[in-house]
Amino acid sequence: MATDVQVPALGESITEGTLAQWLKKPGEAVAADEPIASLETDKVSVEVPSPIAGVLTEQLVHEGDTVAVGAPIARIDESATASAPSSEAGAAPITNPAGAGENPQLRGSEHAPEPELATAETSSADDHITTLSPAVRRAVLEHHVDPSKIRGTGKDGRLTKDDVIAAAQGQPAAKAPSVPPPPAAPAPQTKGPAVAGERREERVKMTRLRQTVARRLKEAQNTAAMLTTFNDVDMTAVIEARARYKDLFEKKHGIRLGFMGFFVKACALAAKDVPAVNGSIEGDEIVYHDYFDVSIAVSAPKGLVVPVVRNAQAMSFAEIEKTIAEYGKKAKEGTLGIEDMQGGTFTISNGGVFGSLLSTPIINPPQSAVLGMHRIEERPVVKDGQIVARPMMYLALSYDHRLIDGREAVTFLVRVKEAIEDPTRLLIDL
Question: What's the whole-model pTM score?
Answer without folding.
Answer: 0.60
